Amino acid sequence: MPILSLIIWLSIFGGLLTLFVGDQRCRMLALVISIIAFVLSLALYFGFDSSTAEMQFVEHMAWLPSFGINYSLGVDGISAPLIILTTFINIIVVISAWEVIQDKPALYLASFLIMTGFMVGVFAATDSILFYIFFEATLLPMFLIIGIWGGPRRVYATIKFFLYTFLGSVFMLVALIYMGSKADTFSILALHDLALSAKAQTFIFFAFFVAFAVKIPMWPVHTWLPDAHVEAPTAGSAVLAAIMLKMGGYGFLRFSMPIVPDASAQLAWLVILFSLIAVVYIGFVALAQSDMKKLIAYSSISHMGFVTLGMFVIFGIVANAGEGAVASQDSHVVMALEGAMVQMISHGFISAAMFLSVGVLYDRMHSRQIADYGGVVNTMPLFAAFMVFFAMANAGLPGTSGFVGEFMVILATFKANFWYAFLAASTLILGAAYTLWMVKRVIFGDVANDNVAQLTDINKREKIMLGLLAAMVLFFGLWPQPLVDMMHVTIENLVQHVTTSKL
Amino acid sequence: MKLVYILTPLAPLFGAIAAGFFGKKLGRVNSHRVTIAGVAIAFLLSLVALSKSLSGDGSVMFNETIYTWMVSGGIKFEVGFLIDRLTVVMMTVVTSVSLMVHIYTIGYMHDDPGYQRFFSYISLFTFAMLMLVMANNFMQLFFGWEAVGLVSYLLIGFWYKKPTAIFANLKAFLVNRVGDFGFLLGIAAVLMYTGTLNYSEAFAAAPSMVGTTIELIPGVAWSALTVTCICLFIGAMGKSAQIPLHVWLPDSMEGPTPISALIHAATMVTAGIFMVARMSPFFELSTTALTFVIVIGSLTALLMGLVGIVQNDIKRVVAYSTLSQLGYMTVALGASAYGAAIFHLMTHAFFKALLFLAAGSVIIGMHHEQDIRKMGGLKKYMPITYWTSLIGTLALIGFPGFSGFFSKDAIIEAVHYSEIPGAGFAYICVLLGVFITSFYSFRMFFLVFHGKERFDDHTREHLHESPKVVTWPLILLAIPSVILGALTIGGMLFGGFFGDAIQVDPARDVLAKIGKDYHGVVAFVLHGFKVPAVYLALAGAVSAWFIYLHKPSIADWFADKFSFVHRILDNKYGFDDFNQKVFAGGSLLLANKLWTVGDVKLIDGIMVNGTANKVGLLSTVVRKLGSGYLYNYAFAMIVGLLAMLSIFIFTT
């Protein structure tokens, strides 16, 4: 059974169908479709063979044979968890929209379902042109979502978002076409083995870097994200943070590192530098925010810093390991990459939860300003419990999934350089400071004003939505083993590729 | 026995979950029943473990993995227990004090609307603390470490409407995070140099680190062991509130009194002491690190005691006393007298919990008045509280025969014998500290229980002894405060009690030296009279009596004449102001600047929008080519894309 195609096309055609059934019945249909897509994606977990690094659930059909472009799909230990995360978040999104979106709900839900299909396509594509198409296609539904249901400055935000990311990926397309013509195929795995000169590698590295650094986003090309988040409707922010940013991280793992390993090694310092700036500088910037969504957006950038740090710090670790050491056997190298992956998955749950929590407040008070709140715990005790829990996860408290990735990356980074680890570990203080200070001002204290006094606690729908996310955050915090098991062999194989020179 | 060890932390966790999630359905009485039952089970199981340990030869009883949290890159991250003498002592202390506090809470929190929530938190704390002390690896240690920090945060901010409480809990969490920051780097260092997170494996590999260096600044080689140990100790400084990371502890008194006793006096704040004792195989290899430890400890012991003299809030006096006593324990660690540190940790847990709970009893009696200047003469209204407080105070100042005497004298003697750099300084500090401890303790005691009644008639009418759920825990804690030291000193300090749990370089083993001259409890007490500590304690008590009961004018005269000293102490040496201005204020200033200048002006203003404006100029020319509505384009692109892909799908 072509599970990957099923998930992708079920979501896309399901989305179109939702558009046609009208605003009354669209919700139930969207929910059913999202649940079926999720159940299908679970087959990727239960049917997954974690003992091989080969692509699994492979589908292959010639598409444009004259150009060597194929419709080929497949997953390994890196992409499978991301696909499951995508379909899971999609369910949450549908639940979150239920009675909140009254303006064109069918179009809204359709956009999210179609986007889910595209995003799964991004992670499942094993042909680089197919990847590129899906990668760009995801922009469109998001563009509509922010543009139609967004806030007052949505036009500025959408254009900024669109131009930024579009511009970034144009360079990637050029690089892909260049390599495709050299290799006579666009298969990503074939590109992994393509020999490239140092100069070509450097160019290709930067082409990819621009695309993925914008997407993830890295300092200094990050400023589109806070604007997009602030203007996007709640679920848009959740998907943006939970899934779309991960496409950048995924791109580094799937393209940059294995295709141009020598350039990656040579330029790792640059990525590490930007990552550490993301952790420290952005951590401070988050502290200065007065808008909750902006604060969480900056917090996302800071957390993504750990993803890129975990990936590129392996070159530093390898350099320190000395002669004769086998990188794929080096515990710290593997741990850094697995930490980066775990961080991506975990951030998917936590950032979605944080944005949805803000959404819960926004639905009631129509304000995202921290100063408009205070003492929410008095009127919404259950919500406050959830919010404090997610805030703690965001601050990397052990027992939540937010701890796992950061812990692994910091432990591993120490082997590359003490000061890298020192700066990375500053997130313990900064992350706690900006997150918990917000919690203090919004949740705790006496009832600040009449609006807060009239708040009603979360309803059943919101309980389910936040409860599901809390369960995942707790589960992977208490037992990350299943996640790591799934990706382990793939990561080891990747390390092999990344540390083998192509010159 | 594995089941016993697993059930010990799980029983309070179960209670916490029951009271936390089903508190409303269970009701108040059932909530406290289920949590108390959970902790009581943990206490009984700890006693089982203790008695089994005592009947054994002191070697490790249990060291197994419960479940594998994660394996990454061949490194095992596990949840597992290491049960040895050090663990069973900690387990027993934690569960017994926790049990007393649970019972006491029934009385203290009687009218509080957050009753069930409170019980849930303190049971959760007990679980987290047990996980911390029972860990057999660094990952779980850190897990417990942060988990107790979380519960501490929740409990300090328990009365979330109070602005001071939610300020204090944020402060506590962040200051602790500064410590954890160092701690995490220390753990990373251990993993890098030993390749494992498991205690026994890491300890076995520790000697191989000797001679390894790390260049923190290019060209300057540091001993890797020293760096590792100091990083780990920074974690201890946060949790065990050592200068300069002590600032959160006095503020934590904003929380309800039972948790001040349990978390901020008896157990959580001693986690740092426990951790360093547990890490003795590392610390013993670095004299530099031990010197650092002993200096920090002596500064804390002396300077925090001095601040205690000028405090007027009954709980803050006890809090500063706790800081000072934690300094004593740290000094013992630095002197390689780990056993003495744990011994003092144990006796202190009981008498300090007693003092806090007694203070809480006074607060109940005084209708939540905490200013000792507004008390006085409470002796006749609250006899049980009075006598138990007296016992606690005598234990604290090290009155001969009381449990604090043995543990404090052991530390002072150990420092006396120690030859580590800094020990001489530490010896002066701890001796002066004895006088100061006694002085502020009796100052508070006299101001509260003796002298003139300085409260109004309304308070007097309602003033009476606290209910039995409050007084019984006081009595039960008073007993060990008297006898525990005498009972256990011989076994615990000088009998090789801790077995392999604590490793000391024989050349530095000061406790062994003292042990040679140890001839039983009576001799130890008599020996106490030959050294200055006892006389300093008596002098402190007498001075307090003279100044605060006999001639109260002296205190005012002193405060007036030496107002600068008073001001320095009242400002707590300016730590709070400094942190508030430099760290908090500075960070916010930096944050705002980075945002407004870095992000808004430079990146967005010049790079992004600047470019956009230039492009905009250009595009006015090109504009006529398109409709200009991006929506149109976007929609066209979606449709085109879908068409392309679908045609392909259906044609193949």
Explain this structure:
- The complex is a heterodimer of chains A (503) and B (652).
- By secondary structure, chain A is mainly alpha-helical.
- The mean pLDDT of chain A is 92.
- In chain A, strands 1-2 form a two-stranded antiparallel ribbon.
- The longest helix of chain A has 44 residues, at 3-46.
- Chain A has helices spanning 3-46, 79-97, 105-124, 128-137, 139-149, 154-183, 188-192, 198-215, 224-231, 234-259, 261-287, 292-321, 331-365, 376-379, 381-394, 401-416, 418-425, 427-442, 450-453, 460-478, 481-498, and strands spanning 56-64, 69-75.
- Chain A is 76% helix and 3% strand.
- Chain B has 27 helices and four strands.
- In chain B, 74% of the residues lie in helices and 4% in strands.
- By secondary structure, chain B is mainly alpha-helical.
- The mean pLDDT of chain B is 89.
- Chain B has helices spanning 2-21, 23-55, 85-108, 115-134, 138-156, 163-194, 199-205, 224-239, 248-251, 257-266, 271-278, 280-283, 287-310, 314-334, 338-365, 383-397, 403-417, 423-449, 457-462, 468-494, 510-516, 520-528, 532-550, 553-561, 563-570, 575-622, 630-651, and strands at residues 62-72, 75-83, 213-217, 220-223.
- The chains are: A mainly alpha (503), B mainly alpha (652).
- At the A-B interface, β1, α5, α6, α11 and α13 of A face β1, α5, α6, α26 and α27 of B.
Main structural class of chain A? mainly alpha
Tell me the strand order in the biggest sheet of chain A.
Answer: 1-2
Helical proportion of chain A, percent range: over 70%
Oligomeric grouping of the chains: heterodimer
Low-confidence stretches of chain A: none
Beta-strand residue fraction of chain A:
under 5%
**How many separate helices of chain A?**
21
The count of strands of chain B amounts to: 4
Shape of chain A: globular
For the report, how would you describe the main beta sheet of chain B?
A: 2 strands, antiparallel
Number of helices of chain B: 27
The chain-level structural class of chain B is mainly alpha
Contiguous runs where pLDDT drops below 50 for at least 5 residues of chain B: none
The percentage of residues in β strands of chain B lies in under 5%
The radius of gyration over CA of chain B amounts to 28 Å
